[in-house]
Amino acid sequence: MYEYKVETYKVKDAEEAMNKLAKDGWRVITVSPNMAMGYGVVVTFEREKQ
After folding, report:
1. What are phi and psi of 9, to 5 degrees?
2. What pLDDT was estimated at residue 50?
3. What is the reported pTM?
4. What is the C-alpha to C-alpha distance for residues 48 and 32, in angstroms, rounded to an integer?
């Protein structure tokens, strides 16, 4: 079983946030532009349930 998390970040902050979550076992499965913000991205993560 997997669990999922969807987060929204400013583009300049996304890399640091993704790396921080990767240390907790999360992996990125999609990155999409956030058209509502105009300068952000929506990132979907998954990891195996622990």
Report:
1. -135, 155
2. 77
3. 0.87
4. 22
